[in-house]
């Protein structure tokens, strides 16, 4: 229910689906970039254009979905004034701080990750929610450290620890050309 108008809305409304899509793909790209992966604006344009396909899978029309960095920035500039902190958004924040897991150690280890996730939100989103984040520089350094640590783990150990992953299945289905690699990224 909309807390201002009192209007009930369906979860499959195009406006809501567009918000979820844009928030998701923007967040992925922003965190990847802020954690030290060298994405250019041109690469982001390509990523946002490619993600229109995922938007179509949930019923949106590709031509109505931002397909470039400039279009995504314009979408958020237009949408931000409509956003509010709500009881539901507070529930998400509390979930990040205290996930409903039974084991105390899991809860304790999840908190820093949840706090880091909140701290990696855009500044405007943090201001909207009014919660104290990890300061920007330490948050970005933590994200870069996690990225570096993950790159140091040998691939055989990652596979052994996690089992077969979606990328593994995709490469098996599509062939070696589909394997994720910095070498395969478009040039700047």
Summarize the structure.
The protein is mainly alpha-helical and 188 residues long.
In what range is the share of β-strand residues?
A: under 5%
Radius of gyration: 19 Å
Helix content: 55-70%
Largest sheet: none
Mean pLDDT equals 82
Count of the separate structural domains: 2
One letter per element, helices H and strands E, the order comes to HHHHHHHHHH
Class computed from helices, strands and strand pairing: mainly alpha
Tell me how many strands there are: 0
Cα end-to-end separation: 44 Å
Uncertain segments: none
Total count of helical runs of at least 4 residues = 10
Shape: globular
Topology summary:
Layout: H1 14-34, H2 41-50, H3 52-57, H4 69-79, H5 87-97, H6 104-119, H7 123-129, H8 136-152, H9 155-162, H10 166-174
Helix pairs in contact: 5-6
Question: What does this entry look like structurally?
Answer:
There is one protein chain. The protein has 188 residues and is mostly helical. It has two domains: 14-82, no CATH class; 87-182, no CATH class. Helix content is 62%, strand content 0%. The protein is built from ten helices and no strands. The chain is globular and about 55 Å long. The model has no long low-confidence stretch (mean pLDDT 82).
């Amino acid at each position: 229910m909309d807390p201002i108008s009192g209007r009930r809305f369906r979860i499959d409304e195009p406006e809501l689906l567009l918000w979820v899509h844009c928030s998701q793909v923007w967040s992925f790209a922003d965190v990847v970039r802020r954690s030290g992966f060298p994405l250019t604006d041109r690469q982001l344009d390509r990523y946002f254009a490619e993600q229109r396909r995922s938007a179509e899978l949930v019923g949106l029309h590709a031509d109505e979905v931002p397909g470039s960095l400039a279009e995504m920035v314009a979408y958020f500039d237009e949408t931000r004034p409509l956003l509010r902190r709500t009881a539901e958004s507070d529930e998400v924040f509390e979930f990040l701080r205290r996930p409903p897991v039974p084991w105390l150690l899991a809860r304790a280890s999840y908190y820093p990750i949840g706090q880091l996730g909140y701290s990696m939100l855009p500044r405007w989103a943090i201001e909207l929610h009014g919660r104290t984040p990890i300061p920007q520089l330490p948050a970005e350094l933590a994200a870069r450290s996690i990225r570096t640590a993950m790159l140091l783990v040998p691939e055989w150990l990652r596979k052994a620890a996690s089992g077969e992953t979606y990328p593994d299945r995709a490469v098996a289905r599509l062939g070696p050309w589909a394997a994720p690699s910095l070498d395969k990224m478009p040039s700047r």
